[in-house]
Amino acid sequence: MRQHLRPPTGTSVPALAPAVSDPADLEREAGLARLFELHYSSMLRLAVLLGADDPENVVAEAYYQIYRKWRRLRDTEAAEAYLRSTVCNLTRMRIRHLQVARKHVEKPADEVVASAESTALLHDDQRVLIDALQQLPARQREALVLRHWLGLKESEIAASMGISCGSVKTHTARGLAALTQAMEARR
C-alpha cells in the first residue's frame, strides 16, 4: 500500500520547477495565463470550425508559439489577434499536411472520427451547418468563421488571414453564396 509522505514540521518541500524571479518572466507568465483564461474556449471553437482534426493540439501549439514570442510582441494587447492568426495558420497548415498524407495512404473516407472535445462543442442543430461549412474552400471557410462566428471586422480578418480587405469581401461573399446554396439543397 502506498503511503503519503509529508515533510517534518518546519521544513519546506523543494519546488519541482525553478522559481521565476525576473519581473519580465513574471509579467509574461501572468499575461499568458490571462490570455488562456479569456480565450482558450474561443480559440478551440475557431480551430474546430476551421476544420482542424485535432483542435486541442492546434490551440496548444498556438499558445506555445505566443509564449516563445511574448517578449517580441510590440503590444501585449495585440496578443489575442496574434493568437487568433496563429490558430488560423496552424489549422491551415495541418489541413494541407493531412491532404498530402491522405494522398499517400489508402483509407476509406468515411472513417473520420471527431474528437470528444469537438463533439461536445457542436450541438445537433448545428451539425448540418458545420457539414456544409466544411465543404467550402479553406479561404471561404476561414473568412466566414472569422466574420460571423467571431464577429471580426474586415481589417482584422485580413490581418488574420494575411490577405487584403477586398479579398476578404470576395471570400466572404462567395462562401455565403455557396453555404446558402448547400443549406437550401439539404432542405
What is this entry, summarized?
The chain is an all-alpha fold and 187 residues long. The chain has helices spanning 23-50, 55-69, 79-104, 116-121, 124-134, 138-149, 154-161, 165-186. It folds into two domains: 23-121, no CATH class; 123-187, Orthogonal Bundle (Arc Repressor Mutant, subunit A).
Structure report:
This protein has 187 residues and is mainly alpha-helical. The chain folds into 2 domains: 23-121, no CATH class; 123-187, Orthogonal Bundle (Arc Repressor Mutant, subunit A), CATH 1.10.10.10. Helices cover 68% and strands 0% of the residues.
Q: What best-fitting shape do the alpha-carbon axes yield? A: globular
Largest sheet: none
Supply the helix-strand structural class.
mainly alpha
Radius of gyration computed on alpha carbons: 21 Å
What value does the average pLDDT take? 78
Number of domains: 2
Distance between the termini: 62 Å
In total, the number of strands is 0
- Give helix % range: 55-70%
How large a portion of the residues is in β-strands, by DSSP E?
Answer: under 5%
H and E order = HHHHHHHH
Number of helices: 8
GO molecular function, one term: DNA binding
Keywords: DNA-binding, Sigma factor, Transcription, Transcription regulation
Family: Belongs to the sigma-70 factor family. ECF subfamily.
Protein name: Sigma-70 family RNA polymerase sigma factor
